[in-house]
Amino acid sequence: MKKIFITILSAALVFMSCQNLEDLNVNTKDPSAVKGETLFSYAQKNVVDQMVGTNVNFNIFRFFTQQWTETTYLDEVNYDIVTRTIPGNHWNTLFRLGLKNLDEATKVLTATPVVLPENSIIRKNKLAEIEIMKVYTWGVLVQTFGNIPYSDALDVTKPTPKYDDAATIYKDLITKLNVAISKLDVSDEGLGAYDNIYQGDASKWLKFANSLKLRMGMVIADYDQPLSKTTVESAVASGVILENADNAALKYMANQPNTNPLYVDLVASGRSDFVPANTLVDAMNALSDPRLPFYMSQVDTSSVANVEKLAYVGGEYGFSNTFSAFSHISKKIQQPTFEGLILDAAETEFLLAEAAERGYSVGGSAEIHYNNGVKASILYWGGSQTSVDAYLATPKVKYTVAASGTTWQQKIGTQAWLALYNRGWEAWQEWVRLDYPVFVAPSTAQSEIPVRLIYPISEQTLNGGAYKAASAAIGGDLVSTKLFFDKH
Amino acid sequence: MRKLTFLLACLLLVGVGLVHAQSKSISGKVLSSDDGQPVIGATVLVRGTTVGTITNTDGVFKISIPGNAKDLVISYVGMKTVQVEATPDIIITLASEDKLFNEVVVTAMGISREKKALGYATQELSGDELSTVKSDNFLNSISGKISGVQVKRNTNIGGSTNIVMRGSKSLTGNNQVLFVVDGVPISNDNFNYVAPTASGSQSTGAVGYDYGNAASDINPDDIESVNVLKGAAATALYGSRASNGVIMITTKKGKMSNTKRVGVTINTGVTVGFVDKSTFPTYQNKYGAGYGAYYDSADGYFLLRDINGDGVDDLVTPVTEDASFGAPFDPSKKVYQWNSLYPGLPNYKVATPWVAAKNGPITFFENPVTYNTTLSIENATSNGSYRLSYNNLNQKGLMPNSDLTKNSFGFNGSWKVTDKLTASGTSSFARQSMTGRNSTGYNDNIMSSMRQWMETNVDYKDQKDAYMSTGRNITWNPSYSSETDLQPIYWDNPYWTRYQNYETDSRDRYMGNLTLDYKIADWVSVMGRVTLDAYNQQMDERRAVGSVPTTFGLDRTDQGSGYYRKDVNFNEFNYDLMANFKKNITDDLNFTGLLGLNIRRTFNNSIASSTNGGLGSPGVYSIQNSAGPLPFPVETAEKIGVDGIYGSASFGYKSMLFLDATIRQDHSSTLPVANNTYYYPSVAASFLFSNVMKQDWLEFGKVRLSYAQVGSSAGFDQLNDSYSVITPFNTPMSSVGGTKKNPDLKPENTASIEGGLEMYFLKRRVGFDLALYKTNTTNQILPLSLSQTTGYSRMNINAGEIQNKGVELALMLTPVVTKNFRWDLKINWSKNDNKVLSLIQGVDNLQLGSFQGNVTLNARVGEPYGVLLGTDYTYANGQKVIDASNGKPVKTATADHVIGNVTPDWNGGLQSTMTYKSWSFSFLIDMQQGGDIFSLDMYYGLSSGLYAETAGNNEFGNPLRNPIVYNNPSVGFASGYASTTGGYLNQGVNVSSTGVITPNNRRVSATTYSGFGYGAEPNKAFIYDAGYIKLREVSLSYSLPAKLLKGAFIQGLTLTAVASNPLIIRKSLPYADPESGLGSGNVQGYSIGSLPSTRDFGFNVKLNF
Question: Does residue A470 lie in a domain region?
Answer without folding.
Answer: yes
